Amino acid sequence: MNRHDLYEEIQARSVEESQAASRDVIRDLALTALACVAWALAGIACIAWSAHTSNLLYGRMAFFTGVGLGNGGVIFTLLAAYRRGERRGDW
Questions:
Q1: Which of 7, 9, 36, 43 is the most buried (most CB within 10 A)?
Q2: Nearest in space to 85 (alpha carbons), one of 36, 21, 16
Q3: Alpha-helix residue ranges (DSSP H) falling in the chain
Q4: In this predicted model, what pLDDT tens digit does every residue of 5-36 receive, in sequence order?
């Protein structure tokens, strides 16, 4: 095996690893986006339920639970995605 063949083999392996890393990043970001949508929908569902309940105490509890779920879930999901990206070396 000469140097040229070795260089081509290393370059081909590098391209494959780069494509695999790109797929991992895209998959992680897609799952993060879906998780954010799920948290937002859970928050919206709680807030919508708070508007339809006739009990003031339950309405306030559901409203503030929805705000906490929607905002907190999205924030913590994005922070977790950022930490995973840092560990992988994406940014």
A1: 43
A2: 21
A3: 3-52, 56-88
A4: 888 888 888 888 888 888 999 999 999 999 99
Half-sphere exposure (Cβ direction) of 33: Cα atoms closer than 13 Å:
6
**Mean pLDDT, range 38-44, rounded to an integer:** 97
Count of CB atoms situated within 10 Å of the CB of 47: 18
The three-point CA angle 41-43-49 to 5° equals: 100
Report the SS3 class of residue 61: helix
Q: First vs last Cα of the chain: how many Å apart?
A: 37
